[in-house]
Amino acid sequence: MTTTNLSGLVAATYTPLNDEGDLNLRAIPSMVDHLLAQGIEGLYVCGSTGEGMSLTSDERRAVAEAYVQATAKRIPVIVQVGHNSVREASQLAKHAQAIGADVISATCPSYFKVSDVATLVQTMGEVASGAPELPFYYYHIPSLTGSAIDMGEFLLQAGDRIPNLVGLKYTDTKLFDFQHCLELQDGRFDVVWGCDEMLLGALATGARAGIGSTYNIAAPLYRRIIDAFATSNVEEARRWQSKSIELIRTIGKFPFHPAMKAILEMRGLKVGGCRLPQGRLSKADAASLRNELEVIGFDVEQAGGLAPAE
């Protein structure tokens, strides 16, 4: 297994659907080109943003394969394989390895909650064993899985028991915990930040990469945060982070992922709506969303543009 730590902006990709709610795989090459043009440095497929848990396993395989083929090794493709059936998750991991994905990741089962470190290590070990040649990142998202296990303890135990464990996708807001995980065993683990509106805080604690939903529509904004921080212009970085917060608060007035897909549709990308229970924005809500975005200076027609922060 060869590993290279993730870096920069990794887009949590959306799964394109047609008007009937079926997969629209033909839209994926355009999605990939759009993201590459914005400076995205990796793709995270079939995660929360990509509605992995709302798709059948066969659909997840089809989506993963389409993204891998469209990306053609230009940037890493991470396939999220978590499932309430641990055996099914392991089979999805096996498929990801077979189609040439670069990395696998997985949430833990969420119907029957994982409540202790030993069980999480055993569970993730079985999932990761399906793709022993690929780096594995555990996807920590307690707000959706209901599993709030200490990630430092998980890494310490799992690091010796899961041979291909590389790190975490850390989607929580505890920067102190995130920093602790980053610094464990002299920085052994690659811990990737997953909360877009707190990217600057994560950079300050040592983050080298972020995985996020709004990178699909505003990657240049986040690039400005990263670049300003890298040149020690913290005030400038803070102003751009403020713009990110304003953008996310505006989108959050609507059902979030249907609203994000509506913005991509405004960009000419045929991604459709979301599977139930999320659904699709009405035409009236989409028009209202567009107006709200224009009020804050977000250009829905152009990839990633917000007016300069004042």
TrEMBL record:
Enzyme class: lyase
One term of GO molecular function: N-acetylneuraminate lyase activity
Record localization: Cytoplasm
Keyword flag Cytoplasm: yes
Protein name: N-acetylneuraminate lyase
Superkingdom to which the source organism belongs: Bacteria
Family to which the UniProt record says this protein belongs: Belongs to the DapA family.
One CC-aspect GO term: cytoplasm
Gene name as annotated: nanA
Binding residues annotated for pyruvate, in chain numbering: 49, 211
